[in-house]
Amino acid sequence: QVxxxxxxxxxxxxxxxxxxxxxxxxxxxxxxxxxxxxxxxxKEREIVAAISTSGAGTYTESVKGRFTISRDNAKxxxxxxxxxxxxxxxxxxxxxxxENTYLYWGQGTQVTGxx
Length: 115
Prior knowledge:
By secondary structure, the chain is mostly beta strands. The protein has strands spanning 3-7, 10-12, 18-25, 34-39, 46-51, 57-59, 67-72, 77-82, 91-99, 102-105, 109-113. It contains no helices and 11 strands.
């Protein structure tokens, strides 16, 4: 069974950095593209970044130049390095992976901008 476990969220100030981690199990990790999504309060879920099996990252426009996605296949882990955080980055962040026709999700990790 595929399982994804996110960690690394927290309370941040504008301009801070944070690194999220997503540890996967139950799949041949290096064969899969992994995605990061987020759901902000009262907003639709949106994809933030994705990383291909070759390590190429793609990003939604609002995080380009600030966020970096990477992977460590030996550790079955995908990272999301978030720099220059803004209040609008406040959200629950989820990693996800497609297995056949099913999209598996982790439980999410909360990133909150301090008021």
